[in-house]
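Sample 3 of the quickstart, ligand S-adenosylmethionine:
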Amino acid sequence: MTNGINTRELILEILLEIEEEGRHSHIAIRNALSKYQFLPRQERAFITRVCEGTLEYRILIDYIIDSYSKVTVDKMKPAIREILRSGVYQIKFMDSVPDSAVCNEAVKLAQRKGFYNLKPFVNGVLRTIAREYKNLELPSREQDLVRFLSVKYSMPENLVNRWLEAYGEEKTEMILAEFLKEKPVTVRCRIHKYPQEEIYRSLTEQGVKVTPAPYLSYAYEISDYNHILALDAFIQGKIQVQDVSSMLVAEVADPKKGDYIIDMCAAPGGKSLHVGDKMGDYGTVDARDVSQQKVDLIEENINRLDSINVQARVMDATVFDVDSELKADIVLADVPCSGYGVIGKKPEIKYRVTPQKQEEIVILQRTILDRAAEYVKPGGVLVFSTCTIAKEENEENMMWFMNNHPFKLESLDPFLPQELHSETTALGYLQLLPGVHKTDGFFIAKFRRK
Ligand SMILES: C[S@@+](CC[C@H](N)C(=O)[O-])C[C@H]1O[C@@H](n2cnc3c(N)ncnc32)[C@H](O)[C@@H]1O
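Result:
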């Protein structure tokens, strides 16, 4: 309890918002924490870790609970289920909290939420688990590889199956393990405007731990700070939060001063602002997204970065815009996708995509690619990207695009660091896999109009 706020209750509220109302975890956590700005850093870190960890390890946690509880997780009331899940997460993964404290807090919370009768149940299940979980065996790897990987790495079986098929056992296990590792935040330094040493100094003077990010010299990984909104380098628009994989899009697009660039799906503006920066104060980036709410996010970033060559507007990328026909030097199609590449940062994604939704996503992506193709001027470039590792959204869409539009793939190698060069990058595309590469899962293909 701090300043009248009960930490466990806040955790329960956040988890219910994510599980019951379908809110994205990072948004639910951010909203809750910004309501209670006065919470000390340690408490904020605890709340964030328990919420993220409970979600990340949900399948393993449910396997543990179901092994010791008479009532299975799927039959429990949502609040009791989340109290138990977050309790098991703390017992299994957080040495800093004594098991007895976890049990006591969970029982008190159940009572406060009106489940007086269930106090003995919560107490019994958690105390048994605390005593015995170390003896519990995982499903047998030899008898059922998919189930084993699913429980060990908390990944739904259908996704494990698909990745085993696409990438084989070794890479799949690397990907699964990587998703569970904690990730630092990556930022792009706006070196065209501010010397990198000045940015480094500003961050470290505020106590931030700064380390070089992989692949790009102007990217840093930052940690050990309370709130990014309080960092001078952020407030002054000297840095932009962005994964290195996403920064590679602007590298590959290779804009020239004065280019006209259409970003079909731009919010919150990461790639638009990056290509804008690469053109100095020249050229125009026409940053579009489907709703005013999304465009507001782009505008917030344009204002913070004081960018003069990026303009945001509402435009549905599936609808043909006659005024854009054959006009753009570069079109960015960073299409909506299943997001499997960023499961490490947004763990709820793994529980949400169904086969039907997967098919709908591919149809939407192809519609946007059809429109994007129409806006590229002869000799111009289309960069297609996603933050997923699903083949149907990446390589299969790329092949489909080549068969249906007068474009050819173009090598990415001149724009990528040597260590990312491969047979496919020489052809014109790159599939980044978490654990195999040092970034989120991400796909980039570069096409030039014939
Ligand atoms: C992967 S995100 C884009 C990230 C962005 N390019 C960046 O680097 O910050 C995909 C975006 O597609 C947008 N979107 C979804 N459907 C769309 C449509 N029909 N037209 C335009 N944008 C759409 C979503 O609102 C979302 O902002």
